[in-house]
Amino acid sequence: YDPQKDFAPIANIGLTPQVLMTSLKSGIDSISDLVAKAKAGADMNYGSSGNGSASHLAVEMLKSAAGIKLTHVPFKGNAEAQLALQSGDIQLLSDAVPGAVGPVRAGKVKAIGIADQRRSPFLPDVPTVAEQGIQGVVAVGWIGLSAPAKTPEPILDKISAGVMRILTDPAVLEKMNTLSFVPAKESRQEFEAYIAVENMKWRKIIQDAGVKIE
C-alpha cells in the first residue's frame, strides 16, 4: 500500500522527539564531545531497535548533519539496546522521550541532545541538537488518525473536529503528559502536509545512508 495514496489523514494527536543518549562510561557529555571524538577517529558504536527503526534513522540523520562516522549495532528492541547502553557495550543510543525519561532521570545514562526544534518539556535541561551547533536534526515521532482513501470529506471533517475537542479535555491532556507525549493539535490539512514533508525527509535519509530492512 501507499501511505499517502491509500489513506486519508484525519488528525495528528501526539508528538515525541528522539533523545540522543550516551553511556556513562563513554565520557561523552554533549553533542560537541560526540562529534569531536568521532572526528578524532574514535571507534564508537550506536545501538537501535533494528534496521530502519526511528532510533536507527535518527542517528543516521545526526551522522549526515555532523559529517561523522559511527558503527550501527541493531538490537531486537529498545529495551535490549538500553541495557547495552547502560553497560557501556555501546556508546550512543537514540530513543523517543517516553523510553528515555526513565533511564535519564534515574541517572543510568546521559541525555546529550533533543532531536527537535525545541526542548522537551519532559527533559527541559537537555538542549536541542541545534542549540549545540548541528542544524537539521529533527526526528519527531507522531501518532495520528487516518481513514481509508476516498472517505467522504464531511466524515473526515467531523472526526477531525471531534479529535480537536478531545485534545482540549484536561483528563486527556493529563494522560498524555503521563505518557510523555506533547499534543499535536494539527488540523486535517496540516496533518496531510506534515506527512508529505516527513516522507520526503526520511526517504532522503534512508537513501543516502543505504538503509535496508533485512
- Report the structural category: alpha/beta
Uncertain residue segments: none
Mean pLDDT: 95
> Number of helical segments?
7
Helix content: 40-55%
Q: Give the biggest beta sheet.
A: 7 strands, mixed
Task: Provide the β-strand percentage band.
Answer: 15-25%
Approximate shape: globular
Number of strands: 7
Could you state the order of secondary-structure elements as H and E?
Answer: EHEHEHEHEEHHEH
Radius of gyration: 18 Å
**Alpha-carbon distance between the two ends:** 19 Å
Structure at a glance:
The chain is built from seven helices and seven strands; from the N terminus they run E-H-E-H-E-H-E-H-E-E-H-H-E-H.
Structural account:
The protein is α/β, with parallel strands linked by helices and 214 residues long. The protein is 40% helix and 24% strand. Strands 1, 2, 3, 4, 5, 6 and 7 form a 7-stranded mixed β-sheet that branches. Helix 2 (54-66) links the parallel strand 2 (45-48) and strand 3 (71-74). The model has no long low-confidence stretch (mean pLDDT 95).
Topology, please?
Elements: E1 7-23, H1 31-39, E2 45-48, H2 54-66, E3 71-74, H3 78-87, E4 92-96, H4 97-105, E5 109-115, E6 140-148, H5 153-166, H6 170-178, E7 182-186, H7 188-209
Parallel strand pairs: 2-3, 2-4
Antiparallel strand pairs: 1-4, 1-5, 1-6, 1-7
Helix pairs in contact: 2-7
